[in-house]
Amino acid sequence: MYSKCDSILDARKLFNSMRYHSLQSYNALITGYARNNHGIEPLHLFKLLMKSGLGFDEISLSGAFSACSTIKRHLEGSQLHGIAIKSSYLISNICVANALVDMYGKCEALNEACMVFDDMVRRDSVSWNSIIAAHEQNDSNEETLSLFVSMLHLGMEPDEFTYGSVLKACAGNQALNFCMEIHTRVIKSKIGFDSFLGSVLIDTYCKCGMMEEAEKLHNRIEEQTTISWNSIISGFSLQKQSEASQKFFSWMLEMGLEPDNFTYATMLDTCADMANIGLGRQIHAQIIKRELTSDVYITSTLVDMYSKCGIMEESYLVFQKAFKRDFVTWNSLLCGYAHHGLAEEALKVFEKMQRENVRPNHTTFLSVLRACAHIGLVDKGLFYFDSMLKDYGLDPQVEHYSCMVDIIGRSGRVDQALKLIYNMPLEADCVVWRTLLSVCKIIGNVEVAEIAAKSILELDNEDSSTYVLLANIYANANMWEKVSKMRKTMKYNRLKKEPGCSWIEVKDEVHTFLVGDKAHPRWNEIYAELGVLLGEMKSVGYAPHGGFLLIDIETEQSTEFEI
């Protein structure tokens, strides 16, 4: 009774006060602990049960398997599997087999889960739910959908748990048509859109980019909970529609629902995306008020939000006050410093991270290499690049090679940077070649620039920025015939470079600006103020570096504001 009422401490006190223990009393406490997500205690109790001489049954084993699932203890689960085989429970009892499939799935041992499922003499809907969920949890989305089809062919009736796993697989594969079929089946089955199933459907539509459908479905859910609101809020955030995400957050508060850790973390992401420091600070205040600062996920998101809003002092302060830090927290601070050009601070954070034995990952090294590129630390950059595989077993990705091309190229060794690209174990993408092309613009290497541009256009023949950049390299080398050729090629292919865009929020209103923009209602005042600032810059000795002025190859005029 106490266990089923979630009063597990009272259940344990009663168990300890009993003079004699029966198999049933052990089972009640083991399953109670497992139901309340206490993973270690049920395993300890199972060991005591084994020593007691009372034996065990399918309930004991199922509870122990559930405990292994909760804490992802693959080794203990395998040992229990051996006990089950010796006791013949695995073959004869479907509940034990189902619990075993579930355990292996959650312990990321998909092959073992499949073997147990294949060996089952009899299977019920729980068996199918377990193997379908196991594949979805291990990112085997195609097989998840295939197993669902097999289940239907056998005449098994799916329930909300089946649909939940299958919809998550649809989201992972962005399989919109399959998602819509499942949606139709749910409607026909009359299961109804409860909070769980409705939330999963909303999440799937969002990940498939169908925001209008997701919003309609959200409005149809009768009993909206924090989970269902989280689905729509995070969905808009995922699609980089931060303003819409923040509107739904406001409506959620108006409905009187309490945000949870996930809601706050999502909102902080939207604040970081829009550089909305005002709302970010308000949410931070709510987090402190609700005593959620001990959550490492929240802390990491706060560090990231402040850094992306350009307030590294606040970011560092949150980091310093963190109750607990994981590699994400460290990466957020490190990435923030690297992004804002504070390379020395970024490298100090990395060195401290190593001293505290926090294992770096690919993201960590990407920030470190960017920091090295910013201050021209070629040897140190090469050292850290080699250290990835040598010391941490991390294979460099395309992004890391792009950083190395930048580091080596900026030092003047453009030919060596080109050689690195040719020797890459991965296929170079447009980003790597664009990095090399940009370096050639700085160094003034026309020969390598032509190789880089040709490689980019083979991958993306409509990349207008490549034509513009190459034309500027030709212009700097006084190769005006080739500049003219670039202009004609762009005109022939009807290519235009997208204008740069920036925005700023003033008094809750977002102002957007394009290059040479005159659409803003106060553009006359803006350009007048810009003229004053440029005059002040000239008066203190600032002079523009002509080598970095871009030529608009359609008009053959500088796109920079004339000084």
Topology:
Layout: H1 8-17, H2 23-35, H3 40-52, H4 58-71, H5 74-86, H6 89-92, H7 94-106, H8 110-119, H9 125-137, H10 141-153, H11 160-173, H12 176-189, H13 195-207, H14 211-220, H15 226-238, H16 242-254, H17 261-274, H18 277-289, H19 296-308, H20 312-321, H21 327-339, H22 343-355, H23 362-374, H24 378-392, H25 398-410, H26 414-422, H27 430-443, H28 446-459, H29 464-476, H30 480-492, E1 501-506, E2 509-514, H31 523-539, E3 551-552, E4 557-558
Antiparallel strand pairs: 1-2, 3-4
What does this structure look like?
This protein starts with 7 loop residues before the first helix and ends in a 5-residue tail after the last strand. A hairpin with a 4-residue loop joins strand 3 and strand 4 (557-558). Helices cover 69% and strands 3% of the residues. Helix 7 (94-106) runs parallel beside helix 9. The protein contains 31 helices and four strands. It has helices spanning 8-17, 23-35, 40-52, 58-71, 74-86, 89-92, 94-106, 110-119, 125-137, 141-153, 160-173, 176-189, 195-207, 211-220, 226-238, 242-254, 261-274, 277-289, 296-308, 312-321, 327-339, 343-355, 362-374, 378-392, 398-410, 414-422, 430-443, 446-459, 464-476, 480-492, 523-539; strands at residues 501-506, 509-514, 551-552, 557-558. The strands form two sheets. Strands 1-2 form a two-stranded antiparallel sheet. A two-stranded antiparallel ribbon has the order 3-4. The chain is elongated, with a radius of gyration of 30 Å. It has 563 residues and is mainly α.
